[in-house]
Design goal:
mainly alpha, globular
Length: 162
């Protein structure tokens, strides 16, 4: 814990923009593949496992993880696809960022802001495995997860009443 606080103090001028600009297009592509495949699989499997959304979530997560792993290991040339279409990798990165933002808004609207923040916090913590600035990424992930947990608990209290 002391190391985390020291790292945060050392990198005190690190902004959210700096963290996002340190993510390369290939990583953004893989995260998008994971999120899109998870959303589609979860939606489909939730209809198959009608009363058991936990099973649908675990199965969708596992299959999405394998799809993302396969896309990474296959050596898929992300920039080459967009170059062949006449789109630069910078424009593709912007498009993927906008699609990710729209997806996050949809998830926040569909499942609630608390689950969105908890999911983003978990994603940041998982990305910290591969990030160069591990302490800052984990700190942001933990903060987002705690904010999401607070939103989720506050919503539960509101539904139950005082």
């Amino acid at each position: 814990m002391k190391r985390l606080i020291f790292d945060m103090a050392y990198y005190g001028n690190l902004t959210f923009s700096d963290i996002l600009s340190s993510i390369d297009p290939q990583t953004m592509f893989l995260v998008t593949v994971f999120l899109v495949s998870f959303a589609l699989l979860y939606f489909s499997l939730n209809r198959v496992f009608k009363n058991n959304s936990a099973v649908a979530g675990v199965v969708a997560f596992s299959i999405s993880l394998f799809i993302t792993y396969g896309a990474n290991r296959s050596g898929f040339d992300f920039e080459g696809v967009f170059y062949g279409l006449g789109v630069s990798s910078d424009l593709a990165f912007t498009i993927i960022s906008i699609v990710s933002l729209v997806g996050a808004v949809y998830i926040g609207w569909k499942w609630g802001i608390g689950k969105l923040f908890m999911g983003l916090g978990t994603l940041f913590i998982l990305i910290a495995i591969f990030a160069y600035e591990k302490a800052a990424t984990v700190a942001i992930g933990v903060i987002l997860f705690v904010i999401g947990l607070l939103f989720w608990l506050a919503r539960g209290r509101r539904l139950r009443g005082p």
